[in-house]
Design a protein that fits this description.
Elements: E1 4-7, H1 9-13, H2 23-35, E2 40-46, H3 58-64, E3 72-77, H4 80-89, E4 93-99, H5 102-109, H6 113-129, E5 133-139, E6 143-144, E7 148-149, H7 152-162, E8 169-174, H8 181-194, E9 200-204, H9 211-220, E10 225-228, H10 248-257, H11 266-279, H12 289-292
Parallel strand pairs: 1-10, 2-3, 3-4, 4-5, 5-8, 8-9, 9-10
Antiparallel strand pairs: 6-7
Helix pairs in contact: 2-3, 2-11, 7-8, 8-9, 10-11
Domain Pyruvate carboxyltransferase: 3-270
Protein name: Hydroxymethylglutaryl-CoA lyase
Family: Belongs to the HMG-CoA lyase family.
Length: 300
């Protein structure tokens, strides 16, 4: 089974890094990801610059990304103002985030869960009217830094309400990296039952070294789209101790060796991870494959 990897390093990867890259460097990162085979790229977010200064140049980035018919660029939006900016910038998809718990929703977005559900429905309908795909991410679906465990029933109920916006895709996010494979299977089952026919995506953080195992469990449960970030950079700036996303190169290795092609070029992904590490001034990134290498030696 082919698995699509959505490259999120330009947005979710960079938003939690203290180093603010130049617009030119962000565009080069995106170009390298596309050259490595990424066909869906979460490129930018249209949020308040005072809250996430790393994303302040979203319009400038979108104005210069390499445009190709086989590449789709995703912009994160949280309200209609963000959507208007995204549509004007020429995104191919928008993604909205609804948090699974009330406390984290208030801390992360300054709004209640109910308010964000309403915002999502409004965003989705307007995006669809403009001919743009709209997906929604359930953040903290596996656990909350403030409220603890999140039950599959809670996530299932939330997914049932998200269906009102007719999502093109629902993503389940382990925002703080607490999930394990048994949870993955339970959540996928709950959301599949609550939102039948809606494609699922999964987004894992490797805070506790479970991300690759969780990703494989998601694929075994029927998920065919996974988020990843070159080098394993990133995280959520509003979640304490939420370290980086699963590394694209590590996930690619696990998927390819498990019989799930991704269309990514492992060598170019590893090279891109090394490049972004240099740009961020990091001698060592979380991703392991850049140090250990592919096995067998030639990934082609």
């Amino acid at each position: 089974m082919v698995v699509q990897v959505v490259e999120v390093s330009p947005r979710d990867g960079l938003q939690n890094e203290p180093e603010i890259l130049s617009t030119a460097s962000k565009i080069e990162l995106i170009r390298r990801c596309v050259e490595a085979g990424a066909r869906r790229v979460e490129a930018v977010s249209f949020v308040r610059a005072d809250r996430v200064p790393q994303m302040a140049d979203a319009e400038a980035v979108m104005a210069a990304v390499p445009r190709r018919g086989d590449v789709s660029y995703i912009g994160l939006v949280l309200n209609r103002r963000g959507l208007d900016r995204a549509l004007a910038a020429g995104v191919d998809e928008v993604n909205c985030v609804v948090v699974a718990t009330e406390t984290f929703s208030q801390r992360n977005q300054g709004a209640s869960v109910d308010a964000m559900l309403g915002a999502w429905t409004d965003i989705a309908k307007a995006a669809h009217a403009a001919g743009v795909r709209a997906s929604v991410t359930v953040a903290a679906a596996f656990g909350c830094p403030f409220e603890g465990d999140v039950s599959p029933a809670t996530v299932g109920d939330l997914a049932r309400r998200l269906v009102e916006g007719e999502p093109d895709e629902i993503a389940l996010a382990d925002t703080i990296g607490v999930g394990v494979p048994t949870q993955v299977r339970a959540l996928v089952s709950a959301v599949t039952a609550a939102a039948p026919g809606v494609p699922l995506r999964a987004h894992f953080h490797d805070t506790r070294n479970t991300a690759v195992a969780n990703a494989l469990a998601a694929v075994e449960a029927g998920v065919t789209v996974l988020d990843a970030s070159v080098g394993g950079i990133g995280g959520c700036p509003f979640a304490p101790a939420a370290t980086g996303n699963v590394a694209t190169e590590d996930l690619t290795y696990a998927l390819h060796r498990s019989g799930h092609p991704t269309g990514l070029d492992p060598t170019k992904v590893i090279e891109t991870a090394a490049w972004i590490g240099d740009q961020l001034g990091k001698d060592r990134l979380p991703g392991a494959l850049g140090r250990a290498g592919w096995f067998p030696a030639d990934p082609r």
